[in-house]
Amino acid sequence: MKIVVSPLIKPVPVLQIDPHFKWCTDEYRAKHNAWLLERFGTKEVAFVLNGDTIAVSPQHAAMLRAEAKKGMYAPAL
Q1: Of 55, 58, 71, 42, which Cα lies nearest the Cα of 4?
Q2: What is the mean pLDDT of the chain?
Q3: Residue 59 belongs to domain spanning
Q4: Which residues pair with 54 in a beta bridge?
Q5: Which of the chain's ends, N or C, has fewer CB atoms near its CB within 10 Å?
Q6: pLDDT tens for residues 53-65?
Q7: Is residue 77 predicted with pLDDT exceeding 80?
Q8: Are the CB atoms for 42 and 13 separated by under 8 Å?
Q9: Is residue 7, in this structure, part of any structural domain at all?
Q10: 14 contacts 35 by C-beta, under 8 angstroms
Q11: Cα(33)–Cα(26) distance, integer angstroms
Q12: Does any domain span residue 35?
């Protein structure tokens, strides 16, 4: 499996109110989403392309390299 590193891929909030949720104001959504971001932070995302390539952010790639150096992951067969 190939890994592609893209600076266009950014971490995303762990939790947030859906922008299509109509039962709160935009101001409330922004305030609550800021609180959720502070409380729960972000997570890294990866995209599988054509079944044989994974696209990740530079930070995610660095995390994967660090884990590989620790011997946490076996090489692909």
Answers
A1: 55
A2: 90
A3: 2-70
A4: 3, 48
A5: C
A6: 999 999 999 988 8
A7: no
A8: yes
A9: yes
A10: no
A11: 10
A12: yes
